[in-house]
Design a protein that fits this description.
Blueprint lengths: L2 E8 L1 H8 L16 E6 L3 E6 L14 E7 L3 H10 L3 E3 L1
Antiparallel strand pairs: 1-4, 1-5, 2-3, 3-4
């Protein structure tokens, strides 16, 4: 289980280029997430990148979107920032 650690702004295309296709690309059981990548790093642990309450797949429309970064610690933000080679912000 992860919790919000920060944010990164990127297009859906940029994320799929860096992270591959999403682990989940349909609505979550509670309907709050439509797109989510689940990643794991030996040093950082579980990391998720996801849209939050972005009903209707707005995050995939080709425009930059503020994606949520989840993790078990703040290193998740730096991990995603490094994968995308861009700045990310902490909560």
């Amino acid at each position: 289980m992860t919790s919000l650690q920060g944010y990164v702004t990127a297009t859906y295309s940029e994320l799929t280029e860096a992270l591959g296709y999403p682990t989940f690309d349909g609505p979550s059981a509670d309907g709050k997430v439509d797109t989510e990548w689940e990643l794991f790093d030996e040093e950082v642990g579980q990391v998720t990148v996801y849209d939050w309450k972005c009903y209707g797949h707005v995050a995939r429309d080709g425009e930059p979107y503020r994606w949520h970064i989840g993790g078990t610690n703040r290193w998740a933000v730096e991990f995603v920032s490094n994968l995308l080679n861009r700045d990310a912000t902490y909560v």
